[in-house]
Amino acid sequence: MSNDILLQSTDLCKYYHSGDSNIAALDHVDFQLERGAFTVLSGRSGSGKTTLLNMIGLLDSPDKGALQIAGEDVLALSSAARANFRLQRIGFVFQAYNLIRVLSAQENVAYVLQLRGMPKQERLVIANRWLAEVGLEGLEHRRPDQLSGGQQQRVAVARALASEPALVLADEPTANLDSQHGESLMALMRELNERCGMTFLIASHDPVAMAAAKQSVYMQDGKIIACDDV
After folding, report:
1. The domain spanning residue 219 has which CATH number?
2. Secondary structure of the chain in the HEC alphabet?
3. Per-block average pLDDT, block size 10, for the chain (230 residues)?
4. Structural domain tally of the chain?
């Protein structure tokens, strides 16, 4: 795998059983992602984009195929090693934010750094810096229920980026936002991609997200049917 290629899947398949038949959620998917990419996976609901994201994020396992991330054969790793790889190398932005309700914005962002064993003072400094990066300076000590939906999603972005992962995965990040806040979030992620060089892979059927892409990948019936550079 070339040094410019961060991720490569080969012949990736995932099947779900329905009665007497198998449904291919992923159907022999070959996919490459370059370092520094800002790629949006799009397609109708059920096209396979979230399933592919879950495979790449090591949240699920394929029935067939190979997957390399940062030169590592991640499917050959044990469950514990996969969990550690996720912690060390992958940042996640979820549709439902997945913030810990009893923790402040600062503590939510610092949580992944805590899991990585970083000393408290150091991780809080980093958390505050990333909250400032996403426009939430001064709101560090507010809990999620004291923040708007757009602000909560920005906390989720700061949490995903605080550990400076090799790859950031975002699943429908604008789904719970109005168009204005969706555009603002995508502009923020694109700006961080360009300035910090982080690699983003975003699953979304939102036109706002697709308009922000440097590369668009279209999925249908578990297959990649088109790939366009913008």
Report:
1. 3.40.50.300
2. CCCCEEEEEEEEEEEEEECCEEEEEEEEEEEEEECCCEEEEECCCCCCHHHHHHHHCCCCCCCEEEEEECCEEHHHCCHHHHHHHHHHHEEEECCCCCCCCCCCHHHHHHHHHHHCCCCHHHHHHHHHHHHHHCCCCCCCCCCHHHCCHHHHHHHHHHHHHHCCCCEEEEECCCCCCCHHHHHHHHHHHHHHHHHHCCEEEEECCCHHHHHHCCEEEEEECCEEEEEEEC
3. 86 87 90 95 91 94 95 94 94 89 97 94 96 94 95 94 93 89 91 91 93 94 88
4. 1
